[in-house]
Amino acid sequence: MHAERLTAAITNRPGVGIVHLGLGAFFRAFGVPWIAEAMRASGGDWGVLGVSLRSPTVRNALQPQGFAYTAVELGPDGETPVVVDTIETMLVATEDPDALVAAMADPAVKIVSLTVTEKGYCHNPATGRLDLDHADIRIDLSGEVPKSAPGFIVRALQARKAAGRAPFTVLSCDNLPNNGRLTRGVILDLAREVDPGLADWIEAEGRFPSTMVDRIVPATKPEDIARVEELTGYHDAAPVMHEPFRQWVIEDDFVGGERPDLGAVGVQMVADVTPFEHMKLRMLNGTHSSLAYLGYLAGYETISQVAADPVFEGFVKRLWQDEIIPAVAAPPGVSLSTYAGELFTRYCNPAIRHRTWQIAMDGSQKLPQRILSTLEDNLAAGRQCPGLMLAVAAWMRYVGGIDEKGAPIDVQDPLAETLREASDSARGADKARAILMVREVFRPELAEALMPGVTAAYERLLAVGARKAVEELQ
Questions:
Q1: Angstrom distance (rounded) from CA 246 to CA 383
Q2: CA distances to 144, 151, 201 from 106, in Å
Q3: pTM above the 0.90 mark?
Q4: What is the pLDDT of residue 100?
């Protein structure tokens, strides 16, 4: 049965109030359903105009379905499908960039949100500043049509200023520390290159609330599409799969106070998201990446498989207790040990087939905030951190492009070539020393501090393999 059954579920839609850049599986499984719930609870025209900055794949799959799709909750005891119909339409930036700028400049649009991954901000992860030498930023500054997410935001804000309109709120939903402040800095850096007066206006009038987002959303596979059709009786070309858990914490700082009533449906609206963000980035994302690199090298396909191994269970629990929790300030009313237990339960959910290879992508962009910041705090406090050192070494072996069996690894990373060249320039543990010299990832002072522990960990990976090296820490 085709999409008629799916589109039949579409209700009367509101007007567009949100443009979302990077409408992939995560935001469709997380943000869009929550926005839909907020409108059902309190009304408002908060329909979503989705944007793909590069590929038409998602648009082409959703368009025949009226942009409705199925979100399937994967619990340990079964699957629960829900039809989501809050996306009004989609644009592909490369097809009509002027149409995208015009849509963002529309006064009905109050929020431009983003899930463009860490690399989409075109910044230097080691400094947090805009990379003016980034190829996309050079295009943005060339006077041609914009290409990057920051480029489109700046161009649209420029159009709104010229029309005498208020700016929209820019709402980053990516896993970056202080994501609102980082986004603000990147936008102001780019705007100042375009027009200092525009930058001053954005600085005075714009709002960039930081957020913390948390829901595990594995990539949708062909067998998932077949399973959704079996489960629902209709064909959905673009369903999304997600775990039951979700958490969204947002700083309540919007232009004119205009936003969906997200607090009515469980979103935590706070004055400062920083303690929630640090907790999640270090405790969830940090261990997720650690398990991904070490688990991949040990031959595991998914996080649930890694967590089911007693060796890795002991490793991650000690990582939380001894190395991560001491470097995290708990948000008000939160027990970090309880939170760690909840995380491990989520990792063990066999219905969530979150691939280690998927989590391992773009490690050069993720490592600074997920692991290196914790290491830096531990080193400053004189705390030992052999587990995190081993995780960094595992990332280094992974980006070298050859696994423990001598098979090639498909490394997806914006610095893949640079990292592979550094690895290939040396032998043995000297590969770790060479990668520590990659300044886009490691500041000189941090690289020097990490050198003894990371090179020793790399040597153990070469000598005994990932699983045995983990076991030796216990």
A1: 32
A2: 21, 17, 18
A3: no
A4: 98
